[in-house]
Write a structure and sequence with these properties.
Layout lengths: L2 H13 L10 H9 L8 E6 L4 H14 L4 E4 L11 E3 L2 E2 L2 H18 L3 H15 L4 E5 L16 E4 L7 H4 L3 H8 L9 E3 L3 H14 L3 E3 L4 E8 L4 E8 L5 E8 L4 H19 L6 H10 L7 E3 L4 E4 L5 H14 L5 E5 L7 H8 L5 E4 L10 H6 L8 E3 L3 H11 L5 E5 L2 H10 L9
Parallel strand pairs: 1-5, 1-6, 2-5, 6-7, 7-8, 13-17, 14-15, 14-17, 15-16
Antiparallel strand pairs: 2-3, 3-4, 9-10, 10-11, 12-13
Length: 435
């Protein structure tokens, strides 16, 4: 395989994004039929929700790997390389296998009108079968009911939380969004959630109608954060056994931030649901899997003097979680923020959350058709950002931040996967082939 041919084929693959998203599952089923229905004989878990579904998926996969399983993990989007989206027991799909599969899938997609996500799903599931995985953990791309991943028949479904997002597709209320996300539930199968309020109310209604056992973080599993540090997170979990007695357990999580404790709770309950359904996962595997869990771009540190912090927060709720982490883990550091976002987000609410912790803000724009311009993003920022500048490229924004930052300060890059990925690439970070 020559590199030029690989890159050319990958460009054809990416060009499928121009077709947008198909809001049905027929296209996904059609292209999966062409590669032999690779997913049908493999056990799976589906992970949806507004925030935290990527981290939760990574934790579940890490726990199952610690339990001795060969695990296929499908997530989106990526930071540096498309291959990050498709991993087997932590390892990226090799370029040679991407090339071999896309040689068939891309022409089929071009001829028959399949979308990028439909084609990516077929690529992932076929790779998983070729690598003899015994479990698939798939992150839902958008919503749930009509997402390509929903062709799976999961043994457990996870809906991390419900917040307003993609209103033009999912609806403008928490109940309507919860209804779409509840589409990944299955009759008689366990469902896990950390949702609260109207979103939780709707999930309870749907699970009751399906006869699906609903496991709730905060009720069936209580969590208490003990230590938030740059090394990781220590928390205590209390879950109820059959006698309604609570058994506390201290756990170390390789990911950082209080919000990751909630995601860990979802992962713990998902594995509990699997165990109750005949797919055993030991408590030792849960402990080891959480300890070893890694997930790039989530409060990820790089470098020294100054330290860079990469976080793919891209909505107001995630921005609030980022600020909480800055307040607890980096309380003594001044923060210079590099931020670039896509057009359809709630920019004002996102930026308002950052105002208090940003000493200086550099607005920028990633090389993405969906990105809002750096100048327009700056205009939408609250007046609290008195110290600011605009850079039209992410590389220029990173260099501007470096010129401003003292050695004891923190440069935080956030706002979208695209912004964080470009910043990482500019600084010379490489794809983590294994996590």
């Amino acid at each position: 395989m020559r590199r030029a041919k690989y890159e050319q084929l990958l460009r054809r693959f990416y060009s499928l994004q121009k077709r947008g998203m198909r809001l049905d599952l027929e296209g996904t089923r059609a292209i999966l039929r062409k590669v032999g229905w690779p997913h049908r004989s493999i056990a799976s878990a589906l992970v949806g929700g507004t925030n935290g579904k990527g981290s939760t998926s990574a934790m579940i996969a890490s726990i199952l790997k610690a339990a001795g399983h060969r695990v296929g993990l499908l997530t989106s989007p990526h930071l540096l390389d498309f291959r990050e989206r498709i991993r087997v027991s932590g390892e990226c799909v090799p370029k040679e296998e991407v090339y071999e599969l896309l040689q068939f899938l891309v022409p089929a997609a071009e001829n028959d009108g399949h979308s990028f996500f439909e084609t990516m799903t077929a690529l992932a599931f076929r790779h998983f079968r070729d690598r003899d995985v015994d479990f698939i953990v798939a992150e839902v791309g958008l919503g749930g009911r009509l997402d390509s991943t929903n062709v799976l028949n999961p043994r457990v479904s996870v809906i991390t939380g419900i917040a307003i997002e993609h209103s033009h597709i999912l609806g403008r209320t928490l109940r309507s969004i919860a209804t779409e996300k509840a589409g990944i539930m299955r009759k008689g199968r366990p469902v896990v959630t950390a949702a609260t309020g109207p979103g939780l109310d709707r999930l309870e209604e749907v699970s009751a109608a399906l006869g699906a056992r609903l496991l709730r973080v905060g009720q069936d599993l209580r969590l208490r954060s003990r230590l938030l540090s740059r090394a990781g997170t220590v928390f205590t979990s209390y879950h109820r056994d059959g006698r309604a007695r609570e058994s506390p357990r201290d756990l170390f999580l390789g990911l950082r931030g209080r919000f990751q404790v909630r995601n860990a709770g979802c992962a713990i309950l998902a594995c509990r649901g699997l165990s109750d359904g005949g797919f055993p996962v030991s408590s030792d595997a849960v402990e080891a899997g959480l300890r070893d869990a890694q997930w790039p771009g989530r409060l990820e540190e790089w470098g020294r003097e100054p330290v860079f912090l990469f976080d793919v927060a891209h909505n107001p709720q995630a921005a609030a979680q980022l600020v909480e982490a800055l307040d607890t883990i980096y309380a003594s550091r001044e923060v210079i923020v590099v931020v670039g976002m896509v057009a359809e987000k709630d920019h004002r609410a996102f930026l308002r959350r950052l105002t208090r912790r940003a000493k200086y803000v550099v607005f920028t724009q990633a090389k993405c058709p969906r990105a809002i311009s750096a100048h327009e993003l700056s205009e939408r920022a609250p007046s609290g950002f008195s110290r600011r500048s605009v850079e039209d490229s992410v590389s220029g924004a990173v260099e501007k931040a470096l010129s401003l930052a003292r050695n004891d300060e923190l440069v935080c890059v956030t706002g979208s996967f695209y912004t964080v990925g470009e910043a990482m690439g500019h600084l010379g970070l490489r794809v983590r082939e294994r996590i």
